[in-house]
Backbone:
């Protein structure tokens, strides 16, 4: 058995064929045979996945002269990976001039707070992505936007300085701004049937796309814009053992995917790398240890002795044959 450490970096890819670091193929200088086990020792991957991937006309709000039911104005924001305060600031900057609606992020509640003084207003999230981020849900049946609350009729808010003289809408639920809890390293040549995910059951069948058979998951437990540095010693021990050895490994086809099995976008932060420890089985390669052999000289010496003895016996036999004939 032999063990190899293999370093893989997206910086070594052919950028003409693979312009993005989320999908690429690299080749091994030496083909490895009968791979029985692969360990993930280290990985470095950027947490640059956006939670706003389409910022065009994402929200509509009543303009400054209209209230509930009046004409709505569409607003856009840049794509990016926003935290709560950052998204609130960006939305306020986009909508305030035309609507006088302001946005705060209530950190202790984990909700967004949209408000305007004196007059009511209508606000609608126009995309499923933004609706899910802001937790501003339109009624599925009536298609009615979220209800704007007046503090005058709500004792809980009437004497609170945050809410006095303001009409407001709050997120209906605690918002979740992380686009992914983890990212999956999918290496086509190293896929395994032992990595699976649990799914819902519909009509006695499992439904939904999946990351099943990918090589393994790396948790994205760092802030957006930072680099996740996975280490076996600090994170967890991850390895895949193959019941039937991989007969030949000459390349690695790398894809970084999400839980649905779809390629993620690093949004230009394309550099990633990982270190594998690859175990191979020599016996199954047909390279067996040769048992110790007797010394060739001894074998030759014995053969020569037998040859001489046979010659002597032959000569004696011939002599006796001649004597008998006389």
Residues:
């Amino acid at each position: 058995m032999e063990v190899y450490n293999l370093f893989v970096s997206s910086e070594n890819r052919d950028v003409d064929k693979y312009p993005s670091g989320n999908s690429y193929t690299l080749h091994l200088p030496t083909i490895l045979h009968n791979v029985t086990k692969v360990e993930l020792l280290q990985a470095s991957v950027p947490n640059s996945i956006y939670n706003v991937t389409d910022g065009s006309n994402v929200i509509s709000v009543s303009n400054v002269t209209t209230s509930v039911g009046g004409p709505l104005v569409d607003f856009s924001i840049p794509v990016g990976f926003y935290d709560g305060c950052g998204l609130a600031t960006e939305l306020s900057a986009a909508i305030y001039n035309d609507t006088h609606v302001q946005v705060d992020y209530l950190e202790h509640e984990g909700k967004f707070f949209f408000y305007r003084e004196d007059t009511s207003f209508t606000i609608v999230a126009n995309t499923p992505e933004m609706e899910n981020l802001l937790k501003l849900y339109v009624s599925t049946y009536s298609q009615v936007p979220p209800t704007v609350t007046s503090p005058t009729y709500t004792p809980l808010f009437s004497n609170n300085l945050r809410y006095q003289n303001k009409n407001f809408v709050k997120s209906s639920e605690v918002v979740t701004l992380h686009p992914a809890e983890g990212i999956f390293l999918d290496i086509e040549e190293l896929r395994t049937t032992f990595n699976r995910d649990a799914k819902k059951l519909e009509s006695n069948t499992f439904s939904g796309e999946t990351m099943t058979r990918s090589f393994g998951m790396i948790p994205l437990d760092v802030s957006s814009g930072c680099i996740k540095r996975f280490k076996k010693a600090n994170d967890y021990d991850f390895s895949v053992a193959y019941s039937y050895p991989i007969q030949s490994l000459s390349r690695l086809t790398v894809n970084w995917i999400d839980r649905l099995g779809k390629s993620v976008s690093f949004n230009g932060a394309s550099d990633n790398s990982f270190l594998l420890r690859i175990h191979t089985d020599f016996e199954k390669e047909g390279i067996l240890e040769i048992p110790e052999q007797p010394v060739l000289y001894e074998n030759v010496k014995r053969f020569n002795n037998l040859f001489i003895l046979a010659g002597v016996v032959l000569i004696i036999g011939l002599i006796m044959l001649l004597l008998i004939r006389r």
In short: The helical segments are 84-99, 128-134, 155-158, 282-285, 296-325. The first helix runs from residue 84 to 99. Confidence is low (pLDDT under 50) at residues 139-144, 285-297. The longest strand covers residues 23-46.
